[in-house]
Amino acid sequence: MYRYLLFDLDGTLTDPKAGITRCVQYALEKFNIFEPDPDRLTPFIGPPLAESFQKYYGLDSAQAARAISYYRERFETTGILENEVLPGIPGMLEALAERGKILAVASSKPEPYCIRILEAFGIRDYFTEVTGAEMDESIRCAKPDVIRECMRRLRIPEDEKDKVLMIGDRRHDAEGAQACGIDSLGVYFGYAGEGELEAAKADYILCTVPEMREFLLSH
């Protein structure tokens, strides 16, 4: 029975596509890179920004740092709320809390942004801890580091790691869970590519929010 449920944020609790892709477009334009199709930018949802700018648009580490700065110019004022909570999530969180589950957020997004988004949707109080990256993404950027810090804050004993479940929509969530010695639930209603969660060896894989709710309440 899982007692501690660690949720990714983007693509798992909320749909941030509009805000993230528009902010990536804004940042890329500073480098004279124009990407009109937001669907081509959905791989930016989930992984650390520095990794994505380098992987998908060939920026070096210094350029990626500048791109993140440009991204945040728009994100902090506008993009952060170009977002929406996924249907069924608030009711699921309420039901899980009533069952005595300990809920937390473990995201690669900077922690202050995570908190602002959860507060904007009125779901912050369901979570005992909200753990994210540092603002400069130099600390707690990789998903295993985020998960470890979240578990440390929750004071989870070593002998209760089998009661911890990481829930997320990208391979980073499943791989981070494996690195921390805990189980993972991968969900395909977010932004994983076809076969991504299977390749990452998520322990469980589901496709809808209702399926996730039923699973978490029964396990």
Structural notes for this entry:
It is a single chain. By secondary structure, this protein is of the alpha/beta class. The chain is 42% helix and 16% strand. It contains 9 helices and 8 strands. The strands form 2 sheets. It has a 6-stranded parallel sheet with strand order 5-4-1-6-7-8, sandwiched between helices. Strand 6 (164-168), helix 7 and strand 7 (183-187) form a beta-alpha-beta unit. Helix 1 (17-29) packs across helix 3 (61-75), helix 4 (89-98) packs parallel to helix 9 (209-218) and helix 6 crosses helix 7 (171-180). The protein starts with a strand and ends with a helix. The model has no long low-confidence stretch (mean pLDDT 94).
The number of helical runs is: 9
Helix content: 40-55%
Strand order of the largest sheet: 5-4-1-6-7-8
**DSSP E strands, number:** 8
Give the terminus-to-terminus CA distance.
5 Å
Mean pLDDT: 94
Low-confidence stretches: none
Structural class: alpha/beta
Write down the secondary-structure element order. Answer: EEHHHEHEHEHEHEHEH
The main β sheet shows up as: 6 strands, parallel
Q: How does the overall form come out from the CA principal axes? A: globular
* Proportion in β-strands: 15-25%
Radius of gyration: 17 Å
